[in-house]
Amino acid sequence: MPQRVAIVSGAARGIGAAIATRLAADGLRVGVLDLTADHCADTVRTITAAGGQAVALGADVSDEASVAAAVDLLDQELGAPTVVVNNAGITRDNLLFKMSVEDWDAVLGVHLRGAFLLTRAVQGHMIDAGWGRIVNLSSISALGNRGQTNYSAAKAGIQGFTKTLAIELGKFGITANAIAPGFIATDMTAATAERIGIPFEDYQAAAAAEIPVQRVGRPEDIAHTASFLVSEGAGFVSGQVVYVAGGPKN
Q: HEC states along 101-151?
């Protein structure tokens, strides 16, 4: 089996960093992509210190030329990518009547346009190889969440995007699946707690009380699921949305 090459967006920290690190531990070479290559230094250092291979890539995922350049650089440095994990994301939360067009466009641009551009840039390599894995990060917010019309719309869109990719690309040996995390303790959720004026520990405790397994999630929980979906053994799993939320959500 050839050594696979993956590209993971939003991989400087949090869930993306955990996924990139796990895929490297699984034996893949990894392109660690974030807004600038400098932001990726810690993740690349973690991977290489453990004996893996990784390269830092800087790109604005909502910019077509920037994405193409990053994929080309990865191809030159580590080989053609046949695994893509679309994890890059931002939040610009607000109630509908307070939400600006700029905040709507920014969130949809990073999540949906970004996933489209990066997947499109990589899919030719997958088709050439006759094998590919696409993992897109959705969220339980796809089911609706107060103050997140932009984010919820983007994450619901990711699910439709994923299912359509599975239909279009399956005949080329390519699978496409989505992971929908619940509450995961990351810098992003810490920022939400700060924005609403609640200590992060209290915010996590309140969330855990509502989750059947009685704890919040960790980035590694998402990385384990991504590892399975990228594996050779997951070749008959496609077009699925896996809720990793400590209990049923759909």
A: HHHHHHHHHHHHHHHHHHHHHHHHHHHHHCCEEEEEECCHHHHCCCCEHHH
